[in-house]
Amino acid sequence: QVQLVESGGGLVQAGGSLRLSCSASGRTFSGYIMGWFRQAPGKEREFVATVTWSSGNTNYADSVKGRFTASRDNAKNMVYLQMSSLKPEDTAVYYCAAKVGSYSRYPSNYAYWGQGTQVTVSS
User: Residues 50, 35: contact at Cβ < 8 Å?
Assistant: First the structure.
């Protein structure tokens, strides 16, 4: 059974940095796309970034491009989201997700989800 567990969220001032971690277990993730999504209060869940487990290829939402970096450590079964130059509008619950096959930015295409970790950016 696939299990994804996020950690690393917290409160940070605007302009600061945080690194989110996602521990992945339950199977071999070769062939998987690992996604990061976020959901702010009253808003729909939105795409942030993906990283391909096998190749490390990444994709980003325009709103975070140049500020966020997604990566993975295959040996540790970990996925990361390094967030820099944080803005108050980055405040949300951040989720790690996994899907088989090709890249997608749509949450409905992801079969596995973590419980989420809160990121709050103060102005």
Answer: yes
3-state secondary structure of 61: coil
Other CB atoms within a 10 A radius of the CB of residue 29 amount to 20
Write down the mean pLDDT value for the chain: 97
Sequence-distant (6+) residues with CB within 8 A of 44 are none
The C-alpha atoms of residue 4 and residue 79 are separated, in whole angstroms, by 10
Two structure tokens written together for 98: 């996994």
The pLDDT score that the predictor gives to residue 102 is 92
Separation CA 78–CA 21 (nearest Å): 7
Strand partners, 98: 34, 112
